[in-house]
Amino acid sequence: MTTLEVxxxxxxxxxxxxxxxxxxxxxxxxDVEGEQVSDLVAFAPDGEEWxxxxxxxxxxxxxxxxxxxxxxxxxxxPMLTIVADTVGRHDFxxxxxxxxxxxxxxxxxxxxxxxxDNLARNLAAFSIAPDRIPTTFNxxxxxxxxxxxEIKVLPPLSTAGSYLDxxxxxxxxVGLTACSAxxxxxxxFKPIDYAAFGTIEEYEGWRRSTAIEKA
Length: 215
Ligand SMILES: [Zn+2]
Fold this sequence. Notes:
The chain is of the alpha+beta class. The chain is built from four helices and twelve strands, in the order E-E-E-E-H-E-E-H-H-E-E-E-E-E-E-H. It has helices at residues 53-60, 99-106, 115-123, 200-209; strands at residues 9-11, 16-21, 26-31, 38-43, 70-72, 78-85, 137-139, 142-145, 151-154, 162-168, 172-177, 192-197. A six-stranded antiparallel beta sheet has the order 1-12-3-10-6-5. The site of zinc ion (ZN) has 7 residues, from loops.
Protein backbone atom coordinates (compact mmCIF):
# COMPACT_ATOMS: atom_id res chain seq x y z
CA MET A 1 0.00 0.00 0.00
CA THR A 2 1.29 3.46 -0.79
CA THR A 3 1.57 5.93 2.04
CA LEU A 4 -0.77 8.85 1.53
CA GLU A 5 0.89 12.22 1.72
CA VAL A 6 -0.68 14.32 4.43
CA UNK A 7 0.31 17.95 4.73
CA UNK A 8 0.86 18.94 8.34
CA UNK A 9 0.39 22.59 9.27
CA UNK A 10 2.12 24.25 12.22
CA UNK A 11 0.58 26.69 14.69
CA UNK A 12 3.47 28.62 16.23
CA UNK A 13 3.54 29.06 20.04
CA UNK A 14 0.89 31.48 21.38
CA UNK A 15 -0.83 31.86 18.00
CA UNK A 16 -3.89 30.42 16.26
CA UNK A 17 -5.55 29.74 12.94
CA UNK A 18 -8.96 29.16 11.34
CA UNK A 19 -9.91 27.00 8.37
CA UNK A 20 -12.77 25.13 6.72
CA UNK A 21 -13.27 21.43 7.39
CA UNK A 22 -15.59 19.45 5.09
CA UNK A 23 -18.19 16.99 6.38
CA UNK A 24 -16.55 13.56 6.66
CA UNK A 25 -13.02 14.95 6.92
CA UNK A 26 -10.85 13.98 9.87
CA UNK A 27 -8.82 16.61 11.70
CA UNK A 28 -5.73 15.48 13.59
CA UNK A 29 -4.37 17.80 16.32
CA UNK A 30 -0.82 16.93 17.35
CA ASP A 31 1.13 17.99 20.44
CA VAL A 32 4.59 18.43 18.88
CA GLU A 33 6.75 18.57 22.01
CA GLY A 34 4.34 17.50 24.77
CA GLU A 35 2.42 19.33 27.56
CA GLN A 36 0.81 21.81 25.14
CA VAL A 37 -2.89 22.66 25.07
CA SER A 38 -4.79 23.50 21.88
CA ASP A 39 -8.17 25.28 22.11
CA LEU A 40 -10.72 24.37 19.43
CA VAL A 41 -13.96 26.02 18.33
CA ALA A 42 -16.17 24.99 15.42
CA PHE A 43 -18.97 26.85 13.65
CA ALA A 44 -21.46 26.03 10.92
CA PRO A 45 -20.57 27.96 7.72
CA ASP A 46 -23.27 30.59 8.47
CA GLY A 47 -21.81 31.20 11.96
CA GLU A 48 -25.23 30.68 13.59
CA GLU A 49 -24.47 27.26 15.09
CA TRP A 50 -21.37 26.36 17.10
CA UNK A 51 -19.70 23.62 19.09
CA UNK A 52 -21.12 23.86 22.61
CA UNK A 53 -19.95 22.48 25.94
CA UNK A 54 -23.42 22.30 27.54
CA UNK A 55 -25.21 19.87 25.15
CA UNK A 56 -21.97 17.91 24.68
CA UNK A 57 -21.85 17.25 28.45
CA UNK A 58 -25.65 16.65 28.58
CA UNK A 59 -25.80 14.11 25.75
CA UNK A 60 -22.66 12.19 26.74
CA UNK A 61 -23.28 12.27 30.49
CA UNK A 62 -19.63 13.14 31.10
CA UNK A 63 -17.18 16.01 31.05
CA UNK A 64 -14.30 13.62 30.26
CA UNK A 65 -14.39 13.29 26.48
CA UNK A 66 -12.39 10.71 24.55
CA UNK A 67 -12.61 8.25 21.62
CA UNK A 68 -16.22 7.42 20.73
CA UNK A 69 -17.76 10.62 22.08
CA UNK A 70 -19.64 12.97 19.76
CA UNK A 71 -19.50 16.70 20.46
CA UNK A 72 -22.67 18.71 19.82
CA UNK A 73 -23.72 22.18 18.72
CA UNK A 74 -25.75 24.76 20.64
CA UNK A 75 -28.73 23.29 18.76
CA UNK A 76 -27.80 19.74 19.89
CA UNK A 77 -26.74 18.61 16.42
CA PRO A 78 -23.62 16.38 16.10
CA MET A 79 -20.62 18.44 15.00
CA LEU A 80 -17.47 16.43 15.70
CA THR A 81 -16.78 12.83 16.76
CA ILE A 82 -13.55 11.79 18.47
CA VAL A 83 -12.25 8.84 16.42
CA ALA A 84 -8.79 8.47 18.02
CA ASP A 85 -7.20 9.78 21.19
CA THR A 86 -3.73 8.90 22.51
CA VAL A 87 -4.10 11.02 25.67
CA GLY A 88 -7.62 10.59 27.08
CA ARG A 89 -7.64 13.85 29.02
CA HIS A 90 -9.13 17.07 27.62
CA ASP A 91 -11.25 19.89 29.04
CA PHE A 92 -14.61 21.31 27.98
CA UNK A 93 -15.36 23.40 31.11
CA UNK A 94 -12.96 26.34 30.88
CA UNK A 95 -13.30 29.38 28.65
CA UNK A 96 -10.38 30.16 26.33
CA UNK A 97 -7.63 32.18 28.02
CA UNK A 98 -8.30 35.88 27.44
CA UNK A 99 -6.83 39.31 28.26
CA UNK A 100 -9.45 39.62 31.05
CA UNK A 101 -8.41 36.27 32.52
CA UNK A 102 -4.75 37.20 32.60
CA UNK A 103 -5.67 40.50 34.29
CA UNK A 104 -8.20 39.20 36.84
CA UNK A 105 -6.74 35.81 37.71
CA UNK A 106 -3.06 36.52 37.43
CA UNK A 107 -2.90 40.31 37.87
CA UNK A 108 -1.04 40.53 34.61
CA UNK A 109 -0.58 44.12 33.40
CA UNK A 110 -0.05 44.91 29.73
CA UNK A 111 -0.39 42.75 26.64
CA UNK A 112 -0.45 38.98 26.95
CA UNK A 113 -1.23 36.71 23.97
CA UNK A 114 -4.43 34.72 24.51
CA UNK A 115 -6.48 32.00 22.82
CA UNK A 116 -9.49 34.32 22.77
CA ASP A 117 -7.64 37.04 20.85
CA ASN A 118 -6.01 34.51 18.52
CA LEU A 119 -9.39 32.90 17.77
CA ALA A 120 -11.13 36.27 17.32
CA ARG A 121 -8.45 37.51 14.93
CA ASN A 122 -8.55 34.40 12.74
CA LEU A 123 -12.33 33.88 12.80
CA ALA A 124 -12.85 37.46 11.60
CA ALA A 125 -11.88 36.23 8.12
CA PHE A 126 -15.06 34.07 8.26
CA SER A 127 -17.23 36.95 9.55
CA ILE A 128 -17.53 35.39 13.01
CA ALA A 129 -17.65 38.09 15.69
CA PRO A 130 -15.64 37.79 18.96
CA ASP A 131 -18.86 37.68 21.04
CA ARG A 132 -19.79 34.42 19.31
CA ILE A 133 -16.73 32.58 20.68
CA PRO A 134 -18.09 29.97 23.13
CA THR A 135 -16.40 27.73 25.71
CA THR A 136 -13.58 26.10 23.80
CA PHE A 137 -12.88 22.37 23.58
CA ASN A 138 -9.47 22.46 25.24
CA UNK A 139 -7.52 19.62 23.68
CA UNK A 140 -4.84 18.12 26.00
CA UNK A 141 -5.86 20.43 28.89
CA UNK A 142 -5.65 18.49 32.14
CA UNK A 143 -8.21 19.58 34.76
CA UNK A 144 -9.08 17.65 37.88
CA UNK A 145 -12.54 18.00 39.44
CA UNK A 146 -12.37 17.65 43.22
CA UNK A 147 -15.45 16.37 45.18
CA UNK A 148 -15.67 19.89 46.67
CA UNK A 149 -16.29 21.25 43.16
CA GLU A 150 -12.89 22.88 42.92
CA ILE A 151 -11.21 22.49 39.52
CA LYS A 152 -7.44 22.17 39.45
CA VAL A 153 -5.42 22.92 36.31
CA LEU A 154 -2.54 20.44 36.04
CA PRO A 155 0.20 19.92 33.43
CA PRO A 156 -1.16 18.14 30.30
CA LEU A 157 -0.67 14.37 30.11
CA SER A 158 0.27 14.63 26.42
CA THR A 159 3.82 13.84 25.32
CA ALA A 160 5.68 14.57 22.07
CA GLY A 161 3.59 13.21 19.18
CA SER A 162 0.36 12.75 21.16
CA TYR A 163 -2.72 13.37 19.02
CA LEU A 164 -6.50 13.62 18.92
CA ASP A 165 -8.53 12.85 15.77
CA UNK A 166 -11.94 14.44 15.17
CA UNK A 167 -14.34 13.61 12.34
CA UNK A 168 -16.48 16.47 11.05
CA UNK A 169 -20.16 15.48 11.08
CA UNK A 170 -21.11 18.59 9.07
CA UNK A 171 -19.26 21.28 7.11
CA UNK A 172 -17.39 23.42 9.62
CA UNK A 173 -15.27 26.49 10.18
CA VAL A 174 -12.68 25.52 12.77
CA GLY A 175 -10.62 27.80 14.99
CA LEU A 176 -7.54 26.25 16.61
CA THR A 177 -4.76 27.61 18.86
CA ALA A 178 -1.51 26.82 20.59
CA CYS A 179 -2.61 27.98 24.06
CA SER A 180 -0.98 30.99 25.72
CA ALA A 181 -1.75 30.32 29.41
CA UNK A 182 1.29 29.57 31.59
CA UNK A 183 -0.56 27.27 34.02
CA UNK A 184 -2.28 25.09 31.38
CA UNK A 185 0.98 24.37 29.55
CA UNK A 186 3.34 23.69 32.47
CA UNK A 187 4.99 27.08 32.08
CA UNK A 188 6.32 26.73 28.53
CA PHE A 189 4.73 27.59 25.17
CA LYS A 190 5.12 25.08 22.35
CA PRO A 191 3.72 24.74 18.82
CA ILE A 192 0.75 22.60 17.75
CA ASP A 193 0.59 20.71 14.45
CA TYR A 194 -2.60 19.73 12.65
CA ALA A 195 -3.55 17.83 9.52
CA ALA A 196 -6.85 17.31 7.74
CA PHE A 197 -7.71 14.07 5.91
CA GLY A 198 -10.17 14.66 3.10
CA THR A 199 -12.35 11.62 3.73
CA ILE A 200 -12.75 8.90 6.34
CA GLU A 201 -11.54 6.38 3.69
CA GLU A 202 -8.35 8.41 3.17
CA TYR A 203 -7.91 8.59 6.94
CA GLU A 204 -8.43 4.83 7.42
CA GLY A 205 -6.07 4.08 4.53
CA TRP A 206 -3.44 6.34 6.03
CA ARG A 207 -3.81 4.69 9.44
CA ARG A 208 -3.42 1.21 7.91
CA SER A 209 -0.35 2.27 5.96
CA THR A 210 1.41 3.82 8.95
CA ALA A 211 2.99 1.14 11.12
CA ILE A 212 3.43 3.45 14.14
CA GLU A 213 -0.32 4.05 14.45
CA LYS A 214 -1.70 2.41 17.56
CA ALA A 215 -4.56 4.44 18.98
ZN1 LIG B 1 -5.30 29.43 25.99
